[in-house]
Amino acid sequence: MAKEIERKFLVSGKRWRHVADAGVTIRQGYLVAMDDRSLRVRTYGDGRSCLTLKIGKTALSRDEYEFDIDIGVATDMLRHAVGTVLEKVRYEVEHEGFTWEIDEYGGRYSGLVIAEVELDSEADLPEIPDWVGREVTGDDRYSNQVMALSAATTGPVDEPHPQSG
Amino acid sequence: MAKEIERKFLVSGKRWRHVADAGVTIRQGYLVAMDDRSLRVRTYGDGRSCLTLKIGKTALSRDEYEFDIDIGVATDMLRHAVGTVLEKVRYEVEHEGFTWEIDEYGGRYSGLVIAEVELDSEADLPEIPDWVGREVTGDDRYSNQVMALSAATTGPVDEPHPQSG
Questions:
Q1: What is the ipTM of this complex?
Q2: Can you give the pTM of this predicted structure?
Q3: Cβ distance B112 to B155 under 8 Å?
Q4: Pfam families per the record (chains A, B) (predicted)?
């Protein structure tokens, strides 16, 4: 029943790779994707799996319930996902006291890299690493739920995401 | 990922009480209640709690995923239930090789008693106990999901359920 407060940014270039950990692959699908609640199933490359229920409309703060589940069950549940099963590799970077999660997408969203930082309160002001680009907190196009349900085949965004550097 | 095949009946009279176990109280709410999938949270009087995802449109056969969860978490989740949190006492009766579950409803559905028998296959023909009344398998009015979401305040049914005898 944790509250989830996070900020989300586009990632510019590849400099973040030098400070990131080895990363873990993630496959995730939405079994429920509604305006005010969602149920997500996620399998990790290291054998973990979880089921996550999020309830609440605001991006900055909502109720979240997460349960570890068996990976065989999780994989079976992914058959019932609505929309696309998203594929990404999640990396972590420690920066000035905050943990940044960097999601590098594969599949139909290949080329998209997003960084998120979780905050203890909305007043927290993390220092922004220099490989972090434009903030997209609250921009629904970068919501995994919207990305999974989107009918587009070229990606969630209408602008280029330079990955050089 | 079990398949759920069951038949449902109204219960006539009180004779079933003589063959039933002590029963356990159940409180349950729906966090998601859609046409083809539902997410139910249930707390039991004996301290257990579970989260159940059902996927599939047909009443006789659907995919069901159930997870034991912490009762404190489950109780918190009930705050987010859509519609009514149903209250009932569930009894079990063994009869001629089949286990019957009898749900005696409280709260706004007080007076309603439903019996269900789970089958290994749709070809199973359990002997019907004499305290079992009309079959309501597939009758949406007796679906817990419909009962929870119903706006009615007097009960799910348009006919009397005699509880004497």
A1: 0.80
A2: 0.82
A3: yes
A4: CYTH (PF01928)
